[in-house]
Amino acid sequence: MRPLAARLAPSALLLVALATSVVLGAPPTGAELKKVLKSGDAAAVKGALEGGALDPDGVKAVLDVVEDGKGGARLRQLGVYESLVAGLGSARGPALDELTKAYKKAKRGDVRFLIVEALGKVPEAPAEATLVEALEDDDESVAVLAARQMGKKATASAVEAMIPLLKKFEGDKARSRMVREVNGALSALTGQDELNVADDWKSWWDSHKNEFRAAAPAAGDATQDRNALDVLKRERPADARTVTRLRPDDVVVIKGSSDRLEDVLEAIGVPHVAHDRAEFDKLKLDPTRQVLVLNCAGKTDLTDAGIATVKEFVTQGGYLFTSDWELKNTLEKAFPEVVKFKGESPRDPKEGLEISIRPSRDNAMHPYLRDVFPLGTWENTSFKWKLDSRSHFAADNPNIVSLVEGDMTGHDKVPSNVVCFTFAYPPGSGRQASGGGDKKKRSGGQVLQVSSHFKNQRDKGGDGFALQKLLLNFIVERQESR
Questions:
Q1: What percentage of the chain exceeds 70 in pLDDT?
Q2: What is the reported pTM?
Q3: Please, are residues 379 and 110 in contact by the beta-carbon 8 Å criterion?
Q4: What is the DSSP string of 453-481?
């Protein structure tokens, strides 16, 4: 029989060598680690990164490969992102110094994103200081991640650092997303849900910092997410509390024959009331606080009085969510100057059409899209969107904001690639984004339309709970707008 060394692949030999060095207490050299990271062997890479704490040379070796064009691309294909985070997150002392210096030097946003994710796992003060710096990163996805990591730090220094930054962000329209995220981080740390302005946070902190005790961290594991609310509880606990504390009639669902959104809300635990479509003309709606949800109802149209009610509800500030055929049956009738029916997807009563989706390039950071797609670019998840036979699409209009687009390659008969859009009504009256920055009081409401049905909701491996997340974000925005 050949010796063991002759029977092992080169990457396996390296892994054996690394495992031996860990047992003997000696970390792998930077050169050894680089070879494994470039080997193309996912198991070897994971073993090397998770086998023990990295020293400064190990941190430098990982980041050298990540920043290298070919090496970094190969690591992405291996699906070892969590192992990269774990390895870099093991840095302490001089190794941590190397990691924090690397953040300051890194020119690419995806590299800084990885470093910030890793720093969230390090309890030492230099890691927190770098996260505070990252809150002002030019790449908004990096800054958002830094805010969420700060919300898990459970230290008084984290609260102290974020309040003046929140004040700074409030004066910058371009930082409206960060106002929301820093408020969420402060809420996660303190358990305070009623504060959302820097001056109020400072007053509260001045009165409470001596007895400060960090709130319990949000529980949850991404691998155990059952629905979009689980994701919200883990990533944005303050927003999750906003949803679970809704009054029962803050969300009003009108039942339909083609979709059953009320079943989805019931399953994920969102308070709501549901009414038959025949009851709609008799309902008393409150546009100052309610979200109205119209299930796709096939050929069952609202009455003329019902259409007038919908228009009045949104005009007075209400939020309206609609699915599929409600585009032609309701939106085009209530808001003809904005929505015009363009056409429908091909008739296919059995299978429908499944397409890959992506955020609209111009509106990827829109508040309705928060966490609908992965925050960073390391997770190249290709989400799928199911279109039923004859799904409805709208014609282009300058007042329509595209949110989610589909890859229609090979599907020339589909009249548009926009599968989810929003608009303010009356046109130009409502805000397209929230969270601070623009303090001007606005009138009017918001409409969100999806060309699909919630009955097609898959799982995190299909559409990533996309439809559920869109609706939850819409509900949260309704509450924030108050």
A1: 86
A2: 0.80
A3: no
A4: -GGG---TTTTTTHHHHHHHHHHHHHHHH
Residue 244 has pLDDT above 60, yes or no: yes
pLDDT in tens, 464-482: 688 888 999 999 999 888 7
pLDDT for the residue numbered 182: 95
- Spell out the residues 6+ positions from residue 5 whose beta carbon is closer than 8 angstroms to its own: 13
Q: Is the CB of residue 357 less than 8 Å from the CB of residue 407? A: yes
Name the token pair of 188: 């996660």
In angstroms, the first-to-last Cα distance of the chain is 76
The number of residues making up the chain comes to: 482
What are 29-38's pLDDT values in tens digits?
A: 888 899 999 9
- Would you state the structure tokens that stand for residue 36, as one six-digit string? 């494994």
Our separate counts of H helices and E strands in the chain read: 21, 11
Please give the backbone phi and psi of residue 370, each rounded to the nearest 5 degrees, phi first: -55, 115
Neighbours of 361 (CB within 10 A): 8
Domain ranges of the chain: 1-134, 136-217, 232-481
The CA distance from 13 to 86, in Å, is: 23
- The candidate with the shortest Cα–Cα distance to 376, out of 121, 142, 66, 118, is 142
Phi and psi at residue 13, in whole multiples of 5°?
A: -60, -40
Which CATH class, in words, describes the domain spanning 232-481? alpha beta
